User: Which sequence fits this backbone?
């Protein structure tokens, strides 16, 4: 009735003898693993102060590990939720070293509303499905283009200087302030090179 108290790999040996002393021995390798595996989802980074800001969702990846029995490579699953509503699910492709990924056909979020979504992944170790690890990652979907307004200045000027003003905004922020482009075209629509201009962005 002995009990193994520490995780690890062991060899169990069982022997039996008959009345004349002949012996039969059977050995079996066993692994004691009482700890659940771990799993991580690779983040999408930070943009404009928002963590995991994306404009499409076609691929997810990450890592999983288990120091005891190892990761069960056919156990991985993912679920994508909008609030509490599940909008997609599938299986993970898990490599022997624990790296995993999932290709999501088409763009999962195409046609969905801008906002926050949750990616949830689950893996198991070789002990069985009851020994699982779960990780979630919140992402912000931003499909809408930024808004841009230009002042209603008169198109007629008596001099060579033209002053324009306006504003640009986006629900989740704009790129670098310097990322503003001005294109001047003549009456036929051909771009021309204007004299140097001053640009003030606030």
Assistant:
């Amino acid at each position: 009735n002995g009990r193994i108290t520490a995780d690890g790999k062991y060899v169990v040996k069982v022997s039996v003898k008959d009345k004349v002393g002949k012996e039969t021995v059977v050995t079996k390798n066993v692994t004691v693993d009482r700890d659940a595996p771990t799993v991580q989802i690779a983040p999408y980074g930070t943009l404009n102060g928002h963590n995991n800001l994306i404009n499409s969702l076609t691929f997810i990846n990450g890592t999983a590990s288990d120091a005891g029995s190892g990761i069960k490579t056919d156990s991985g699953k993912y679920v994508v939720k909008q609030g509490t509503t599940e909008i997609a699910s599938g299986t993970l492709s898990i490599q022997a070293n624990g790296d995993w990924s999932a290709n999501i056909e088409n763009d999962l979020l195409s046609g969905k509303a801008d906002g926050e979504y949750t990616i949830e992944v689950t893996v198991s170790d070789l002990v069985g499905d009851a020994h699982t690890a779960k990780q979630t990652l919140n992402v912000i979907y931003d499909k809408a283009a930024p808004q841009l307004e230009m002042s209603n200045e008169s198109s007629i000027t008596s001099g060579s200087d033209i002053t324009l003003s306006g504003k640009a905004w986006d629900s989740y922020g704009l790129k670098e302030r310097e990322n503003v482009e001005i294109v001047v075209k003549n009456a036929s629509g051909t771009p021309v090179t204007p004299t140097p201009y001053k640009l003030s962005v606030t």
User: Anything to note?
Assistant: The radius of gyration is 30 Å. Residues 157 and 163 are 10 Å apart (CA to CA).
